[in-house]
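lol ok so funny story. i was supposed to be doing the assay writeup but got distracted and ended up predicting the structure for this chain instead. priorities right. anyway since i did it might as well share w the group, maybe its usefull for someone
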Amino acid sequence: MNNQKTVTVVLKTNHTHEGVKREPGSTLEVHPIDAGWLISNGVAEVQHPNAEEKPVNSKK
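and the output, tada:
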């Protein structure tokens, strides 16, 4: 089992994630680095600022 963590973000704009078009208000669970990119580029915001990070299974 992989110990990677995810962050849940809410999209603020239309965005394509893993080939799937998503609309504003959609939630994604992404790696913290990806969440940082989405947030810093105005694409998403953290869903719950005080939420705990969750372990996720990875195929890598």
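Confidence is low (pLDDT under 50) at residues 55-60. The CA atoms of residues 19 and 36 lie 20 Å apart.
back to the writeup now i swear
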